[in-house]
Amino acid sequence: MLWGIKISRRDFLVCLSSAVLLVLSFPKTNYFFLSFIGLIPLLYGLDQRSYSKAFQLSYLTGVMFFAGTLFWFVHVTSLGAVLLILYFSVYFGLFGLGVRYFSSLSSLKKMFVLPALWVVCEFLRAHLLSGFSWVSLGHSQYQNIFLIQIADITGVWGVSFLVVLFNVFIKEVIQSKTNQGLLFFVFILILGSVLAYGGFQINAFEKSQQELGQTSSLRIGIVQANIEQELKWFEPAWPDILDTYLALSKSILKENPDLIIWPETAFPGFLGESKETFERVRKYVIESKVPLLFGSVKKEGDKYFNAVVLLSGEGKIENEYDKIHLVPFGEYIPFRGRFPFLTDLIPIDDFSVGEKYTLFDLNLRTNNVLSKIATPICFEDTLGPLVRRFVNNGATLLVNVTNDGWFKDTKAPFLHLASSIFRAVENRRNLVRSANTGVSGFINPVGKVES
């Protein structure tokens, strides 16, 4: 039963089949090809259904899908995870309503209208009520390097469109008794154009790399200390945590880096309050003469910010960036003032919101080439418009500092990586990921993880 409406075993299996196929197309299983058929059971299940039934079946599919892809959010807040899953599933339901509404269209029109409808639903989910764009269907293709190159034109939405187009095409070809040749022609034309564009972009990038060589390469050292989340805010452990970061940083110096990066909230304590700890970090930087970019919780008066700080090789604070887009239920409680009981259910304090899209200036020590570094923190790199704002302001390098330790050994760090890959492709920028746990590495402008 769902909302008092009985669901038959057949309908339940239809919803389950689509949900399972779609979940398996994402990390960690990464069977990306399953997303091309994942919606077909649901699309068949929606044939000749009422509007209420179409919404019901699609919503149930959404609940199963989001439960299978976002279950890890319970490690932050169980109540928040349940609320998010129930809310996100509404967009699946809206898609089901649209499928029912457009059911009388020709097969050729459905091949364009239904993918567009899906993209509208994903776009709304990514922007309404703070926005959450994780596990868009396009993200399932993050390893399909030729297909995702169109993201520099369409964003992840264009790849989602293609995935849904594939599903609709297969269903309509099977069902349609006329115009099958036209459907094949249109589909192959679209897919061939996308793959040709992908090949062109990849080839152009490889040629530019050969011409550029190593003359302006930036040598970056990433420190991933794998500090357990339970220890990060256990004050007696702070000296040992700092010792770990300093020891790992010193081991990198033999590689002659231009910059060393620590992940989100790596600084043990509170910047602006833990003065002795900061002086130890500053002493290391002065001795190494290598700039350090690190994440920290920063205290200013009675406000706390999730921040990134750049220390110059002389130990001077060059600039700071305060996180602009906070995570609901993780960094603040939505509607806390209207629903005070949420404070008891989810006992966290609210961070303050940053206001400036700060860029960090860094000169290469070898040839004085200036890099302008943007540092989206944690989930901020999943937000295409926010990262684009940094690039439009002149960012030449993207650095995502994150702490995925919240989510234990789950698929969350790999889903996060998928979003990072799309930001690199969309903006044609190198992207560096510095994670406390999970996936650190270097992503080139065509979305290939180089290390």
From TrEMBL:
The chain crosses the membrane at residues 7-25, 54-73, 79-99, 146-170, 182-200. Keywords: Acyltransferase, Cell membrane, Lipoprotein, Membrane, Transferase, Transmembrane, Transmembrane helix. Residues 223-451 form the CN hydrolase domain. GO terms for molecular function: N-acyltransferase activity. GO terms for cellular component: plasma membrane. It is a multi-pass membrane protein. Signal peptide: none annotated. It is found in: Cell membrane. This is Apolipoprotein N-acyltransferase / Copper homeostasis protein CutE.
